[in-house]
Amino acid sequence: MDRDQTSTAPSPPADARRHVPRTDALLAEPRLAAAAQRLGRSVVKEVVAGVQERARAGEVPVDGLAELAVAALPATAAGLRPVLNATGVLLHTNLGRAPLSRAARDAVLAASGTTDVELDLTTGERSRRGRSALEALLRQVPAAEAAHVVNNGAAALVLAATALAQGREIVVSRGELVEIGDGFRLPDLLVSTGARLREVGTTNRSAPRDYAAAVGPDTGFILKVHPSNFRITGFTRDVPVAELARLGVPVVADIGSGLLVADPVLPDEPDAASWLRAGASLVTASGDKLLGGPQCGLVLGRADLVRRLARHPLARALRVDKLTLAALEATVRGPETPTWTALHADPVRLRDRAGRLAAVLRAHGFDSRACDTLAVVGGGGAPGVTLPSAAVSLPAAYAALLRRADPAVMARVEDGRCLLDLRAVPEEADEELAVAVRRAGVLPGTGD
Question: pTM, whole model, 2 decimals?
Answer without folding.
Answer: 0.89
